[in-house]
Amino acid sequence: MAKRKKSEWFDWVKALLVAFGLAFIVRIFLFAPIVVDGPSMMPTLHDRDQMIVNKFIYKIDEPDRFDIVVFHATDKKDFIKRVIGLPGEHIAVKDEVLYINGEKVAEPFLKERKQHLQPYETLTGDFTLEELPGGYETIPEDHVLVLGDNRNNSTDSRMLGLISMDQIVGKTSLIYWPFDRLQTLHE
User: Quick check: is 166 in a domain?
Assistant: First the structure.
């Protein structure tokens, strides 16, 4: 009887160790939670929204335009922004219109914000890729240009410069908390 209880206890310990080990592997290599900090992605993301980051997607695929990504902005701070420019592209914004390689590109996620602008207000402000830190003519390989959806209140590629793929933690598209905002995000 004592041997049986000891065996049962040992089985529980093994099961817990395996569960913790799997959770650790998933957390480190596959998925991680993140809390949105600040208003830079409003109205798409709200301050304190809790999301899941897919950490392995960019090991098997490249970012797509308008993906929402988490990246290391500094050694101590991760930012969450939207991918606007991809390698080989030239980016410019003129009169609230995004131009990629000289072609107008719609940004449907900004429609609501643009409708509420006063005639004297700007959301994004005019810029060209050459005017950003680094002075590139086109986005180099393994880099992306990111912008916050709340363009007039966002620290993004306009200040930070282009983001290296090595800085990117992963892609996020699921808000899981608060529960009333539970949703997957699409452009």
Answer: yes
Q: How far apart are CA 54 and CA 172, in angstroms?
A: 6
Q: Name 147's Cβ contacts closer than 8 Å, sequence gap at least 6.
A: 81, 82, 84, 124, 154, 156, 157, 158
In the set 3, 14, 40, 114, the catalytic residue is: 40
In a domain, 154, yes or no: yes
Q: What is the CATH number of the domain that holds 42?
A: 2.10.109.10
pTM of the model: 0.82
Tell me, yes or no, if 81 is annotated catalytic: yes
pLDDT, mean of each 10-residue run, the chain (187 residues): 67 66 56 87 91 89 94 91 97 94 93 79 89 93 95 92 95 89 77
| Residue among 5, 6, 77, 81 flagged as catalytic | 81
Measured CA to CA in angstroms, residue 23 lies from 29, 34, 113, 174 at distances of 10, 16, 39, 19
Res 30: pLDDT: 60
CA distance 143 to 126: 21
